[in-house]
Design brief:
Length: 526
């Protein structure tokens, strides 16, 4: 193929993919303008019946309106969810060495129980003033100043939850059924529950020197989340609580970043007494759709051309607010079916109408590029700042001529293409690849991890490669359970997760189910 300056930065197939992506964004822009001019209800009324059946919309504009009004339209923050359920909470900020302020949430006790409630008031109980004060504390979940010092040095076991890719801490507490909310169950069992947030999402959207409009604000990959955000948050929590170690429960990317952090940070291993991985995603196997899966092989230049270099997929917020809930749920189901092949059949329509509202939060485009590199190479590696731009292969006798007809693919079994004979008389081979010989991109040394690990994964999860993960780990996980019919998101939101998966998680933590049940009188009072 003739090398053309500038244009040869991308291959022909990459230009085809870029064209498809451009058409998608053009159509999306047109639809966005259309819906700004024409009311959505008018559009829905004129849709043919086959659209409803194809999107599998069970009852447009009519499914679970009560839940929609309570959870979706009204509850837009972690604080509002806590107030609804009646759990005491605190909000904290941890400053990273590079200037990000990470939002951290803390559930300080069981439902309906406030430290302030045990304080003897100086006011006369007959006046009713103290009752009003207690009511206010229940609503806000704020601890009295004199009790904050006592709560900081709690002797209770500490647990830290961390969300997945493009999510926030809300994903762990937004399920409509209490039994399916693991942080609440651990709070009832006496745990000091914390929930972390990665840089760039809705609770960590602040930097001391940069603004979100500055491209440098979004110049981070999963490396920075793993090596800066995770240790900073862990250190902050241990300092606040006085504990020597904590239990870490991660979901999806929340597991990958802890594997990275433990592999790089030896001292962190002693501060994590148990690492529980829900739907671990260390080396995803790629996408279900072949067209989308092609983008895993695309160069970073192409991905940056499509998505820019700041926040990723900000258009999602427009569609969340514009589409009716049932139509939004159906559209999201279609997207995950095309991308990953998931049916999402373990969640009811009522559950989806609630939890899908909390499905998206900002991250960087660079984090997406990092995941594409991991999928392409089939290994948990660091971000490659200078990957091969466009692979060309030569024989040594004619270095300026590409080898015609060479078919190469990057797969998990063969992460590098086949070699080319050095000469006709030589049995040795050598691969020439522009950019490949300039540096070696390092993997994360997972064999150095010494923390106790428990894995919980789904047999129908296309993003988990547990066999490869176990091979990379130095020690056999303490517990490894597969739930055959579970997909990726089911470990957060399946209607049976609280009865099927979480009892196994609690057992791995040594927690009795009897200690983490909601007392009947509190359930009735809700």
């Amino acid at each position: 193929m003739l090398y053309i300056p500038f244009f040869s930065r991308l291959s022909v197939s990459e230009y085809q993919g870029l064209l498809i992506a451009a058409l998608f964004f053009i159509v999306e822009k047109v639809l966005r303008v259309l819906l700004l001019v024409v009311p959505i209800n008018l559009v829905v009324d004129h849709l043919p019946e086959w659209v409803f059946s194809w999107f599998k919309i069970p009852q447009l504009l009519g499914t679970n309106k009560e839940a929609e009004g309570e959870f979706l339209d009204d509850f837009n923050s972690f604080a509002e969810i806590m107030e609804y359920w009646g759990y005491p909470y605190e909000d904290h900020l941890a400053e990273t060495p590079d200037g990000f302020l990470l939002g951290i949430h803390r559930i300080t006790g069981p439902r309906g129980r406030r430290i302030a409630q045990t304080i003897h008031a100086d006011t006369d109980t007959d006046t009713g003033a103290n009752a009003d004060a207690d009511t206010d504390v229940r609503t806000t979940g704020i601890l009295a100043p004199e009790d904050r010092q006592a709560s900081m040095r709690s002797t209770r076991p500490v647990v830290l939850f961390w969300h997945g890719f493009m999510l926030s801490s809300e994903c762990f507490v937004c399920h409509p059924d209490w039994i399916n909310i693991l942080p609440f169950r651990l709070a009832e069992a006496g745990y000091d529950v914390w929930l972390g947030n990665s840089r760039g999402n809705k609770y960590s959207y602040k930097h001391l020197r940069l603004t979100p409009e500055d491209r440098r604000f979004w110049d981070f990959s999963i490396d920075e989340i793993a090596t800066i955000d995770v240790p900073t948050t862990v250190e902050f929590i241990l300092k606040e609580t006085g504990a020597s170690s904590l239990t870490y429960i991660g979901f999806s990317q929340g597991t990958a970043q802890m594997f990275m952090a433990l592999a790089r940070n030896k001292s962190l291993n002693s501060k994590i007494n148990h690492f529980i991985a829900l739907a671990p995603a260390s080396t995803p196997r790629g996408f279900h759709n072949s067209i989308v899966d092609y983008f895993t092989k695309a160069t970073p230049q192409m991905l940056y051309l499509m998505f820019g270099r700041r926040r990723a997929m900000s258009l999602v917020y427009f569609w969340i607010n514009m589409l009716p809930r049932d139509l939004y749920v159906a559209a999201l189901d279609l997207c995950v079916r095309l991308l990953f092949g998931w049916s999402m059949g373990n969640m009811s329509q009522e559950t989806k109408c609630i939890v899908y509202w909390h499905l998206y939060s900002y991250t960087s485009v660079k984090a997406i590029v990092h995941w594409m590199q991991i999928i392409r190479c089939g290994k948990l590696q660091m971000y490659d700042d200078d990957p091969p731009v466009y692979p060309l292969f030569w024989t040594s006798s004619s270095p300026n001529e590409p080898v015609a007809g060479l078919d190469f693919k990057y797969t998990h079994e063969h992460s590098r293409p086949q070699s080319i004979p050095l000469s006709k008389s030589s049995t040795k081979g050598r691969t020439y690849q522009r950019g490949a010989l300039t540096h070696w991109n390092n993997d994360y040394p997972l064999k150095k991890i010494s923390t106790r690990i428990s894995l919980f994964y789904g047999g129908s999860d296309s993003l988990s490669s547990v066999e490869l993960l176990c091979k990379d780990l130095g020690a056999v996980p303490e517990k490894s359970l597969c739930f055959q019919h579970y997909e990726h998101m089911d470990f957060l939101w399946a209607d049976t997760v609280g009865m099927l998966v979480y009892p196994e998680v609690l057992a791995a933590m040594g927690v009795s189910e009897d200690t983490c049940r909601l007392p009947a009188h509190r359930l009735v009072s809700a």
